[in-house]
Structures are given as C-alpha cells and as structure tokens.
Write a structure and sequence with these properties.
Number of helices: 4
Oligomer: single chain
Radius of gyration: 37 Å
Distance between the termini: 109 Å
Shape: rod-shaped
Mean pLDDT: 78
Strand content: 25-35%
CATH topology of the largest domain: Nuclear Transport Factor 2, Chain: A
Number of domains: 2
CATH architecture of the largest domain: Roll
Strand order of the largest sheet: 3-4-5-6
Low-confidence stretches: 1-20, 54-67
Number of strands: 6
C-alpha cells in the first residue's frame, strides 16, 4: 500500500503526508543537535586557540619611551620638575642633561618655593609647557616654552618668562 499524497502548487509535487520537508521530528532534532554541537565545538576551539600560547605577542610599549630612563618625553619633564620641587637637585640636573655645574644649577632655584608645570602639547620629543614658579616672597613668575627630550634626558629648552 502506498502512502496517501497531497498535491501542492502548480508543479504537482507531492510529499507523503505527515512529513515536513522529508524530515520527521526525530530527524530535525538530530540535525539541530548536530548543528548545536558543531557551533559549541567551534566556539570552544576559538577560545582554546586564544588562550594557547601559540603566537605570543609583546605588549605595546608606552608612547615613545626613552631607552635611558624608560620615561616618555612628557614623563621626563614631569620628573624633572618633581625632583626640583623635592630639592633633589642632583636628580633634576641629571634629567636636565647636566648643563653647567650642579652648584650653578642649584643656585638657579634660590628664591623659588615651588614650580607647577603643565604640559600643553607633546609632539614627538618636543614637550610644550606652561610653568608657574611661586617665589619665596610670595610672588609668581609665569613661563612658557618647550623642552626637547632624547633618551630620557632634556637636551634642549626654549623657556621664556611671560610675567
């Protein structure tokens, strides 16, 4: 005995009754299970690949560090003024490129109570700053200009007194 058929559309195709697209409920369940298993395996494989140490990558270096100190140009200028404010003139003198004698460098800060530096721009090795120098007598001197940094050392400066 042949299964009863039902005609659909103009092409006269016929399918046995009780079957959707030729797959029964059990067939659909198996197909969905296989698809889900393959998807899970692909996800697990991707995660395992990412976690595996197949292709180690070096971390990205901080923005343009200097080989000598490991400091970026901006960090070098900030460290320079931090050393001055802490009266660590030897450290500041080293960061400043050891220009002249240490004694002359220290004497240049006689009468300065505190320096506040603000970096306004960094372009490669050139750091643009504004500087507020509080004097021991309470007055304030304002400076603007640039520092050029190489290998963690200030190698050039163009700082002008504004007021």
């Amino acid at each position: 005995m042949q299964p009863e058929t039902q005609r659909h559309g103009l092409g006269g195709s016929s399918r046995p009754r009780g079957r959707a697209g030729g797959l029964g409920r059990r067939g659909r369940d198996i197909a969905l299970t296989v698809i889900a298993a393959v998807a899970c395996a692909a996800i697990a494989g991707g995660i395992a690949y990412k976690l595996a140490d197949h292709h180690p990558t070096a971390p990205s270096p901080p923005a343009r560090t200097s080989p000598g100190t490991g400091l970026s140009p901006a960090s070098t200028v900030l460290a320079y003024y931090a050393a001055i404010n802490q009266h660590r003139y030897g450290k500041a003198w080293e960061l400043g490129g050891r220009q002249g004698s240490l004694t002359t460098f220290e004497n240049g800060y006689v009468g300065t109570a505190h320096d506040t530096v603000r970096i306004t721009k960094v372009d490669g090795s050139v750091v643009t700053v504004t500087l507020r120098a509080l004097q021991s007598d309470g007055s304030v001197k304002l400076y603007t200009g640039t520092y050029t940094v190489a290998n963690g050392v200030i190698v050039g400066s163009d700082i002008q007194l504004q007021s």
